[in-house]
Amino acid sequence: MYRVFLERAAEKDLKDLPSRLHNRIIVALQALAKNPRPAGCRKLTGSDNDWRIRIGDYRIVYEIDDAAEVVRVNRVRHLKCIGDLPIHHLRFTIHGSSWWPIVIRPLRGLNSMA
Which residues of the chain have pLDDT under 70? Predict the structure, then answer.
Protein backbone atom coordinates (compact mmCIF):
# COMPACT_ATOMS: atom_id res chain seq x y z
CA MET A 1 0.00 0.00 0.00
CA TYR A 2 1.33 3.40 -1.01
CA ARG A 3 1.18 6.47 1.21
CA VAL A 4 -0.53 9.45 -0.44
CA PHE A 5 0.62 12.99 0.31
CA LEU A 6 -0.80 16.33 -0.80
CA GLU A 7 1.43 19.28 -1.61
CA ARG A 8 0.17 22.58 -0.18
CA ALA A 9 -0.95 23.73 -3.63
CA ALA A 10 -3.05 20.57 -3.99
CA GLU A 11 -4.53 21.08 -0.54
CA LYS A 12 -5.53 24.62 -1.56
CA ASP A 13 -6.96 23.27 -4.82
CA LEU A 14 -9.11 20.87 -2.78
CA LYS A 15 -10.45 23.70 -0.64
CA ASP A 16 -11.44 25.60 -3.78
CA LEU A 17 -13.30 22.68 -5.39
CA PRO A 18 -17.05 22.79 -5.90
CA SER A 19 -18.65 20.73 -3.12
CA ARG A 20 -20.29 18.35 -5.60
CA LEU A 21 -16.82 17.20 -6.73
CA HIS A 22 -15.01 17.22 -3.42
CA ASN A 23 -15.99 13.71 -2.29
CA ARG A 24 -15.29 12.20 -5.73
CA ILE A 25 -11.78 13.65 -5.66
CA ILE A 26 -11.16 12.39 -2.10
CA VAL A 27 -12.24 8.86 -3.10
CA ALA A 28 -9.90 9.00 -6.11
CA LEU A 29 -7.01 10.18 -3.92
CA GLN A 30 -7.59 7.35 -1.46
CA ALA A 31 -7.71 4.84 -4.31
CA LEU A 32 -4.21 5.92 -5.37
CA ALA A 33 -2.91 4.31 -2.17
CA LYS A 34 -3.99 0.88 -3.44
CA ASN A 35 -3.25 1.45 -7.12
CA PRO A 36 -1.19 4.51 -8.12
CA ARG A 37 -1.66 3.69 -11.81
CA PRO A 38 -5.42 3.13 -12.16
CA ALA A 39 -7.14 2.49 -15.47
CA GLY A 40 -7.24 5.70 -17.49
CA CYS A 41 -4.21 7.31 -15.85
CA ARG A 42 -1.74 9.00 -18.17
CA LYS A 43 1.97 9.62 -17.83
CA LEU A 44 2.85 13.29 -18.36
CA THR A 45 4.99 13.91 -21.41
CA GLY A 46 8.62 14.66 -20.66
CA SER A 47 8.59 13.15 -17.18
CA ASP A 48 9.54 9.81 -15.66
CA ASN A 49 7.38 9.91 -12.54
CA ASP A 50 4.55 12.40 -13.18
CA TRP A 51 1.04 11.12 -13.86
CA ARG A 52 -2.50 12.43 -14.10
CA ILE A 53 -5.95 11.00 -13.66
CA ARG A 54 -9.21 12.52 -14.76
CA ILE A 55 -12.19 12.99 -12.47
CA GLY A 56 -14.93 14.64 -14.52
CA ASP A 57 -13.51 17.92 -15.84
CA TYR A 58 -10.73 17.91 -13.22
CA ARG A 59 -7.24 16.45 -13.27
CA ILE A 60 -5.21 15.12 -10.39
CA VAL A 61 -1.50 15.58 -11.17
CA TYR A 62 0.83 13.46 -9.06
CA GLU A 63 4.25 11.82 -8.80
CA ILE A 64 4.89 8.17 -7.97
CA ASP A 65 7.95 7.05 -6.01
CA ASP A 66 7.81 3.25 -6.26
CA ALA A 67 10.93 2.72 -4.14
CA ALA A 68 9.43 4.61 -1.18
CA GLU A 69 5.84 3.55 -2.03
CA VAL A 70 4.73 7.18 -1.99
CA VAL A 71 2.31 9.13 -4.18
CA ARG A 72 2.76 12.92 -4.04
CA VAL A 73 -0.23 14.88 -5.30
CA ASN A 74 0.90 18.18 -6.80
CA ARG A 75 -2.31 19.73 -8.13
CA VAL A 76 -6.05 19.16 -8.47
CA ARG A 77 -7.13 21.46 -11.27
CA HIS A 78 -9.86 22.01 -13.81
CA LEU A 79 -8.77 20.85 -17.22
CA LYS A 80 -8.94 24.37 -18.62
CA CYS A 81 -6.32 25.44 -16.07
CA ILE A 82 -4.00 22.43 -16.13
CA GLY A 83 -3.05 22.91 -19.77
CA ASP A 84 -1.79 26.41 -19.04
CA LEU A 85 0.80 25.25 -16.52
CA PRO A 86 4.21 24.10 -17.74
CA ILE A 87 5.44 20.85 -16.21
CA HIS A 88 7.92 22.61 -13.90
CA HIS A 89 4.99 24.44 -12.25
CA LEU A 90 3.32 21.12 -11.49
CA ARG A 91 6.33 19.60 -9.74
CA PHE A 92 7.38 20.51 -6.25
CA THR A 93 10.03 19.49 -3.75
CA ILE A 94 9.56 18.46 -0.15
CA HIS A 95 10.13 21.31 2.32
CA GLY A 96 9.58 20.26 5.91
CA SER A 97 5.90 19.56 6.42
CA SER A 98 4.96 20.66 2.91
CA TRP A 99 3.60 17.22 2.00
CA TRP A 100 0.40 16.23 3.72
CA PRO A 101 -0.43 12.53 4.21
CA ILE A 102 -4.00 11.55 3.43
CA VAL A 103 -3.58 8.12 4.98
CA ILE A 104 -2.59 9.64 8.32
CA ARG A 105 -4.84 12.70 8.58
CA PRO A 106 -8.49 11.92 9.44
CA LEU A 107 -10.95 12.22 6.60
CA ARG A 108 -13.24 14.45 8.57
CA GLY A 109 -10.51 17.09 8.16
CA LEU A 110 -10.80 16.70 4.40
CA ASN A 111 -14.59 16.82 4.45
CA SER A 112 -14.56 20.06 6.42
CA MET A 113 -12.65 21.79 3.59
CA ALA A 114 -15.66 21.66 1.24
Answer: 81-114
